[in-house]
Amino acid sequence: MQGYAEVLRLGMEQSEEQRQKYANRIHTKARFIASLVDDLFELTKLESTELSYERKIGDLAELCRTAAADLYDSFERKGITLDIRIPESPVMLSYHEGLMHRALSNLLTNALKYNKEGAHVWLELEACDEDILLTVGDDGPGISDPVRETVFEPFVRGDQARRSDGGSGLCLAIARSSVERHAGQIWLDPEAEGTVVHIRLTKT
Fold first, then answer.
1. Among 30-44, 91-105, 170-184, which stretch is predicted with the lowest mean pLDDT?
2. Less packed terminus of the chain by CB within 10 Å, N or C?
3. Pairing of the two strands 81-85 and 120-127
4. Cβ neighbours of residue 75 under 8 Å, at least 6 residues apart?
5. pLDDT digit string, tens, across residues 54-92
């Protein structure tokens, strides 16, 4: 950013096209840094023992529908099928709406970002007697073996090819912390093809 800004400040660009190109790169990098700072701040809050998050009884099925609806057009534009498998009846649970929405949105956003046209992504909600199982999966290339065990750690990327895609590497870490704030579990399915992430929340 500093280099491109210096070129523009000194008037060293050779054409209007080059000036626009450098300005666009500065803008793109600035948006990335702003997103990174926001994610770091969110992760810091989640990992702080001094902050508490009030939970309320709500319909988790409706929250899932909302999270999917927010990104449905983006999936459609990219040519990726988004399959919603959510019970029609309410699934009541004590949870923090903002944290759970962020966790689901991060998982769906990752599936959108790292899959190509023609891929299949699904969001599934299963209500059992004592717990609830949420699944976000896809039939894409999956996550390479060397990082599968650490993929929920901050700044860990699922694939070397993803390191220059503009992502912060914090989406899964934030999703994990959000789930753990609910005394839940989140894990990567070791046997599934593609990338399949499960979340288990206890009703009690």
1. 30-44
2. C
3. parallel
4. 81, 82, 112, 121
5. 889 999 999 999 999 999 999 999 999 999 999 999 999
| Of 130, 172, 129, 159, nearest in space to 42 by CA | 172
Give pTM, 2 decimals.
0.76
